[in-house]
Every structure is written in structure tokens, then in C-alpha cells.
Automatic annotation (TrEMBL):
Its EC number is 3.5.4.16. The record marks 156 as: May be catalytically important. This is GTP cyclohydrolase FolE2. It comes from Candidatus Burkholderia verschuerenii. One of its GO terms (biological process) is tetrahydrofolate biosynthetic process. It holds the Pfam family GCHY-1. InterPro entries: GTP_cyclohydrolase_FolE2 (IPR022838), GTP_cyclohydrolase_FolE2/MptA (IPR003801).
Length: 304
């Protein structure tokens, strides 16, 4: 004999009689496929899934239904805004008996992209980019938001100016008694003393969020990341040899930026091509024990 299993989420009434904005699960592990540049890449994702619970008397939602629906994302088909929109509709339909009218899914994963060295031919390495995708449907309005993180180097313009002044003063002092200086003497002095003072620089991170059309077949992550890195000019490198390290030093020296500069560069670059861009940048200062930060485009929070 098979006894009917109790389901108190259906048979019992909620004691508080309060409607809830969101109810669901957080941190579901899933293998997903992401289509970038025509190639499917497998990623380990963590997924949050929620629906609203507007009926105050309903004790609880059906977690197993949400889990099964979210699990369908790992069927091998690539992740896309269109698939997420379909999933949200299914989540709401599965909870009609709870009165649900809204649903949302949050997906977090790291996207690995192979990056070539700046100079050395044939040399490359993998770089990881944190990605957060949030798909939401409230009543009949569906939205998809994409956030990516990009690490880069930032060299302080003020520190560079102060360093140049010290080098200039040392140079003048070294040749104060000479009426003329040959190029060879200048070169010799610079080789030994050009780093008498060096500007401070640090690893930095830009977080960018954009709204993405819900009907598109791809997330377009690589193109978004490339545009951010191009705007900043000094993305961190993977495999390097001395020639590549020298080229990176040159990029930093010719691309000085405050945290304000970085935020404005990324915001301007994205505003021309994406919907509702928002930017948060953080420079992990080597001069101070605290960080320098900037926001643009009403970026809420500090990201992750």
C-alpha cells in the first residue's frame, strides 16, 4: 500500500497572513553552456530562483517545481535571454495556485577567455571574468541584466607628475655645472636614475551592468568585456615574457588614470552601444590602506 504523503504547504494556512515579495532558492549548482563567438563553453554556475507569494494565506511555494525548472537550463542548449524569458514564464505558470505573478533568476559564473600576449607571438593564457545574469519578470514586464567584471592596472596621474618632478630635479642637479650635455650622457643618466621615483599603481576592477534585449539568442559577453578592456587600455595580462612586460609598462605609463577617469571611460564606451549602462570601479590603492572608488549611471551597491 502507498499512503498519500502529507503536503502541509497546501493543507495548512500561513499563520502570519502576510504576502511575500520573493520566495525561492539560492545557490543551486548547475553546469551550463554559454555560446560565445560561435563556440559553446561549459561553466559551473550558481543559480538563484524566486517567485512572489502574493496570497497571504498560502503557507509556502513549491520548491521542487522551481528546482526542476531551473535544472532544465543544463540540458546542453546554450544560455540565452530568450531561454531565460521562457523559464520565467514557466516558473510563474507552475505557481498559479500560489497566485504568483512575478519570477526572477540570478545566475553567477566565471567565463574563461584565452588572451594573447601583448608582443610575443604564439604566447597566450586564460583569464577569468566574473559574470552575473539577472532575468526578472514582474507582471508582464521582462528584463535581463548582465554584469561583468574586468581587472586592469591603474597608474596614478598625480603620483606620476610628482615622480617626474623628482627625476627632473635630480637630472638638473647632476649636470648643474655643465653647459652642454650629449645625448649619450643623457641616456647613461636615465638608464641608472630614471626610476629615482616611480608612480604608484595598482590592480583595479571595473564592474559594468547593462540591460540586454530579452529576445536575443546570445548574451554577447565577450563583446561587452572587449569593449570595457579597450576603454581602459590596461587590462591585466596572463602569460608574459620580458618583451610583453615592457609593453605593459609602456601602456601604463601612457595611460595614466584616476578612478574618476576609469569610470568615465567605461561609461562613455558603453553608452554608445548598450542599454542603461552602470559602472562601478575600484582602485585597490598601493599608497593607502583604503581603496578609491567611483560610480556612474546609478550603479546600485558595490557589486561582487
Amino acid at each position: 500500500m502507498h499512503a498519500t504523503l502529507p503536503d502541509i504547504s497546501v493543507t495548512d494556512t500561513a499563520p502570519g497572513q502576510i504576502s511575500l515579495d520573493w520566495v525561492g532558492m539560492q545557490g543551486i549548482d548547475l553546469p551550463l553552456s554559454v555560446d560565445e563567438d560561435g563556440r559553446c563553453r561549459d561553466v559551473h554556475a550558481r543559480v538563484d530562483a524566486h517567485v512572489d507569494l502574493p496570497l497571504a494565506h498560502v503557507k509556502g511555494i513549491h520548491m521542487s517545481r522551481l528546482y526542476a525548472l531551473v535544472g532544465s537550463l543544463s540540458d546542453g542548449e546554450s544560455l540565452s535571454p530568450k531561454r531565460l524569458s521562457t523559464l520565467l514564464d514557466a516558473m510563474i505558470d507552475s505557481h498559479r495556485d500560489c497566485g504568483s505573478r512575478s519570477a526572477r533568476v540570478r545566475i553567477a559564473f566565471d567565463l574563461l577567455i584565452r588572451r594573447p600576449a601583448l608582443v610575443t607571438e604564439g604566447l597566450s593564457g586564460w583569464k577569468s571574468y566574473p559574470v552575473h545574469v539577472t532575468a526578472t519578470k514582474v507582471e508582464r514586464l521582462s528584463t535581463v541584466e548582465i554584469q561583468v567584471g574586468v581587472d586592469y592596472a591603474s597608474t596614478c596621474p598625480c603620483s606620476a607628475a610628482l615622480s617626474r618632478q623628482l627625476v627632473e630635479q635630480a637630472f638638473r642637479q647632476a649636470f648643474v655645472e655643465q653647459e652642454a650635455v650629449t645625448p649619450a650622457q643623457v641616456g647613461d643618466w636615465l638608464r641608472d636614475h630614471a626610476t629615482l621615483a616611480t608612480p604608484h599603481s595598482q590592480r583595479s576592477r571595473a564592474l559594468a551592468r547593462v540591460d540586454w534585449p530579452t529576445h536575443t539568442p546570445s548574451l554577447g559577453l565577450t563583446a561587452l568585456i572587449d569593449r570595457i578592456e579597450h576603454a581602459l587600455g590596461t587590462p591585466v595580462q596572463t602569460a608574459v615574457k620580458r618583451a610583453d612586460e615592457q609593453a605593459f609598462a609602456a601602456l601604463n605609463g601612457q595611460n595614466l588614470m584616476f578612478v574618476e577617469d576609469a569610470a568615465r571611460r567605461v561609461q562613455s564606451a558603453l553608452a554608445e552601444h548598450y542599454l542603461n549602462p552602470r559602472v562601478h570601479v575600484r582602485h585597490e590603492e598601493s599608497l593607502h590602506p583604503h581603496d578609491a572608488v567611483a560610480w556612474a549611471g546609478a550603479f546600485e551597491g558595490e557589486g561582487s
